[in-house]
Amino acid sequence: MAIQIPATKEVLTALIRADFTTVWRNRRSLRLVLAVPLIILISWKGLVSHLGAFVVLSSVLTIGLTSIGLMGYTNSIARDRDKGVFQRLRVAPVSSWTIMFSRISVQVALIAVMTLLVFTVGYAVDGIRISALGYVTGFLMTLLAGCLYLGLGQLITGLIKNPETVNSTTRLVYFAFIMVGMFGQFGVLGDVVKYFVIWSPYGVVQKALAGSLQPLTWTMDHTLAVAGILAYTLVFVGLGVKYFKWDNK
Amino acid sequence: MITTDASLILDVNQISVYYGQFQAVKEVSFNVRPGEIFGLLGPNGAGKTSTLSAIEGLLKPHAGTITVAGYDVVKQPLEAKANMGVQLQSTSYQPELTITDILRLFAGIYGVKLTSAEITKKLEDIQLLDAVGKKFGQLSGGQQQRVSLLIATIHNPVLVLLDEPTTGLDPQSRRQLWERIEGIREQGHGVLLTTHSMEEAEAVCDRIAIIDHGRIIAIDTPERLIDLHREDPEVISVSRKGKITLEDVFIGLTGRAVRS
């Protein structure tokens, strides 16, 4: 007797449970991804009065998103593709979108955890106080901005197949984003670099997050930054999906 | 003309597979019946994996049709995949998952509800009860193959595809795996396996097809293939001990040259 296709809900539940278990068991990587923004946040305690609470929080959240998108998501996709994990799933009655949906769900959950940790540590250690509305809109904006970095990760795994090359590329991009982004936004690297950083994936995310943490002072610049996030996400996801290959050959 | 027989578990009909300009599979046709173990043999690069990948739905044939339990693998891929169990040549699972986690994952994917007691029973059946908390990478080659076969058959599929299932196994593990494959046949299910081992093909396959340069050049029972070709000069010339074996027929038909 022919077997019927299992319900999508059942398949998704099984995939998400396995993907969460994978992230949880990989705690060293998990701790590293979550620790980077928290370490920066704690070490920047003295800068809160100079830069402003919103700049500090938004910069730290941007760094956290970069960590998750580039170091976490990208490397896990590249590794599992190389090992043939995806091929084994794809010979089962599983739609490709459910595999990716499950992977992205785990990353979105990580982004939510990272954001809450940053808010908590910012409040407890750095003494950062923002409005309740700011916390809510900031949280939602972090989830939206996370799509940009997950999209960038997708683009990298779409363009590069070798997991070691993916790993070194993400480290390079991560380093460039943090160093050029952080120093560039403060004008340390000159006005030209500052201008490019403002409209870079780092800059638009940082700007939109800073605006969302203080929604009552929202300006056209913040709206343009959100438009920038959407535009970058569309391009990265579009190209990433187009060039992505499931197999390792 | 393309026809399909609904009683066949697998019906591969005139499929062609291209990689760019290169035609890896050329109008290949064969079928697997209920309660049959069908072997697909061929030298490296002959088109075995491409044929298997097309059946598994990993690549789309440029021509021809493939049906599994009556479902077209291109038009109804999920239905077709739900009715087949697959053991890939180099199966891998997330290294962080334990054997129990992997069983739960694939049971969920195939819509099979398994209690902890049922998982324990299944692992006991394949003599891997002590591997419950182990990761896949911590198992020996034979244990990994047993787990992979268990996962491939966890939903009791009508068709099981096994890509070189006994490669690298010691004789004891290989014999044990043969018995499990024969057990699948006894349940009335069909098995398609690829192998480089002529001994394995002779021992477990009811029918075999020899594929070379993308074409099927012979298809029959192992015994009849030997009988049909025992007088061929090419086969006699490669015979080593005076007695014609399936390996002699295979080398006689596909040539002595080593394939990359």
UniProtKB/TrEMBL annotation, chain A:
Record keywords: Membrane, Transmembrane, Transmembrane helix
Tagged with keyword Nucleotide-binding: no
Annotated localization: Membrane
Gene Ontology molecular function: any one: ABC-type transporter activity
Name of the protein in its database record: ABC-2 type transport system permease protein
InterPro entries xref list: ABC-2_transporter, ABC2_TM
Membrane-protein topology: Multi-pass membrane protein
Chief location of this protein within or outside the cell: membrane
Natural source organism: Chitinophaga jiangningensis
UniProtKB/TrEMBL annotation, chain B:
Superkingdom of origin organism: Bacteria
Keyword Repeat among UniProt keywords: no
Keywords: ATP-binding, Nodulation, Nucleotide-binding, Transport
A GO MF label: ATP binding
Pfam family, one: ABC_tran
Domain (ABC transporter) ranges: 10-238
PROSITE patterns referenced in this protein's UniProt entry, alphabetically: ABC_TRANSPORTER_1, ABC_TRANSPORTER_2
Family from the record: Belongs to the ABC transporter superfamily.
PANTHER family: ABC TRANSPORTER ATP-BINDING PROTEIN, ABC TRANSPORTER ATP-BINDING PROTEIN NATA
Protein name stated in the entry: ABC-2 type transport system ATP-binding protein
